């Protein structure tokens, strides 16, 4: 792991930590203690086993370093994240599929439970797993108006697992989540703002980063202990369900994803993407 100091947009030095050929770049503003984690896996930030593992490792490091907040964003031009890497579960190797799903569970738990406040800077399309990661942050700022966000699993002929669903319910409520999930709807920035899936829509990424910093700076005046306890209590039932049902969730997903019917749907969906 290498470290270097670079000059940030507001002329303060930021501590930049990066690994060679890393898919995740992190900078920490020395003055505010706020980290920016940038996902950088071309072409679409699809979440495969190695990428998830890197994100989880980075989040754990930030916790150890006691950062004051974190913004999650993308280094790609028009995509926040295309969600889970479909090639991990189309014609999968069963052992790798198990490892992939366990890593997803752990990465999500780490992100959803961070002891520091988080903001998603959604600077591109954010379907499915990309939307899950954005919803798992404490606050969402999306660059409009061109991009879309949502849990579109039914469009792939698959079903969002219970903890994806519960995460969405926590953000937009039962009724809107049910409609969104069953129809697999991808929302435009304006629509997402209207239903509360995002908190702010802004015209460009610099404004999004400024607003993200503003949101996270609110917590300078809040006791970290009070923040963490409140977040734990608020998110407890969703988190506890997964902790108690990790193996059941894994077994179900691995079996279900390998069924002939699901594999057929995924094959057709992948083909449509290639076109
Ligand atoms: C009791 C009942 C309980 C039931 C429980 C069931 C539980 C089991 C179910 C398991 C659930 C699994 C959950 C999955 C969640 C997911 O995240 S699935 C992934 C969903 N993602 C998408 O649908 C996004 C698809 N991609 C796009 O829409 C577009 O690519 C884009 C808008 C992101 C970008 O568009 P564009 O810039 O035009 O790029 P493209 O040319 O489309 O793509 C470039 C390149 O990338 C490949 N690609 C795109 N997305 C993915 C992906 N998610 N995974 C892998 N690969 C992807 C695309 O095919 C192109 O490849 P080529 O360059 O053509 O080779």
How would you characterize the overall build of this protein?
With 275 residues, the chain is an alpha/beta fold. Helices cover 48% and strands 18% of the residues. The chain has 9 helices and 11 strands. Strands 1-2-3-4-5-6-8-11 form an 8-stranded mixed sheet, with helices on both faces. It has a 3-stranded mixed sheet with strand order 7-9-10. The longest helix has 34 residues, at 224-257. 41% of the residues are buried. Bound molecules: ligand LGD76KDA. Ligand LGD76KDA is lined by residues 43-44, 46, 79, 82-87, 125, 127-129, 152-153, 156, 158-159, 161, 252-253, 256-257, 273-274.
Summarize the structure.
The protein is α/β, with parallel strands linked by helices.
Give short descriptive properties of this protein.
275 residues, three-stranded mixed beta sheet, 48% helix, globular, binds ligand LGD76KDA
Largest sheet: 8 strands, mixed
Largest beta sheet: strand ordering: 1-2-3-4-5-6-8-11
Beta-strand portion reads 15-25%
Mean pLDDT: 93
What is the secondary structure topology, with strand pairs?
Elements: E1 2-7, E2 13-18, E3 24-29, E4 34-39, H1 49-64, E5 69-74, H2 94-112, E6 118-122, E7 126-127, H3 129-136, E8 139-143, E9 148-150, H4 162-172, H5 174-183, E10 187-188, H6 189-195, E11 200-202, H7 205-217, H8 224-257, H9 260-274
Parallel strand pairs: 4-5, 5-6, 6-8, 7-9, 8-11
Antiparallel strand pairs: 1-2, 2-3, 3-4, 9-10
Bound molecules: ligand LGD76KDA.
């Amino acid at each position: 792991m290498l470290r270097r100091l670079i000059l940030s947009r507001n002329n303060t030095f930021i501590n930049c930590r990066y690994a060679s050929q890393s898919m995740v770049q992190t900078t920490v503003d020395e003055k505010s203690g706020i980290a920016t984690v940038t996902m950088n896996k071309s072409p679409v930030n699809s979440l495969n086993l190695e990428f998830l593992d890197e994100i989880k490792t980075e989040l754990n490091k930030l916790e150890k370093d006691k950062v004051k907040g974190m913004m999650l964003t993308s280094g790609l031009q028009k995509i926040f994240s295309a969600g889970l890497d479909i090639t991990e579960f189309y014609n999968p190797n069963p052992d790798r599929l198990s490892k992939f799903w366990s890593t997803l569970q752990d990465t999500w738990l780490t992100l959803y439970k961070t002891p520091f406040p988080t903001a998603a800077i959604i600077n591109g399309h954010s379907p499915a797993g990309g939307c899950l990661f954005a919803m798992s942050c404490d606050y969402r700022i999306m660059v409009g108006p061109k991009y879309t966000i949502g849990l579109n699993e039914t469009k792939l002929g698959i079903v969002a697992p219970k903890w994806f669903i519960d995460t969405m319910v926590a953000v937009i409520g039962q009724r809107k989540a049910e409609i969104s999930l069953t129809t697999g709807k991808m929302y435009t920035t304006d629509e997402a703002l209207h239903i509360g899936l995002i908190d702010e829509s802004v015209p460009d990424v610099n404004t999004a980063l400024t607003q993200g910093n503003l949101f996270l700076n609110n917590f300078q005046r809040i006791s970290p202990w009070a923040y963490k306890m409140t977040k734990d209590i608020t998110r407890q039932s969703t988190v506890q369900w997964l902790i108690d049902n990790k193996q059941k969730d894994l077994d179900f997903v691995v079996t279900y994803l390998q069924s002939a019917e699901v594999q057929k749907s995924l094959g057709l969906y992948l083909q449509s993407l290639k076109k």
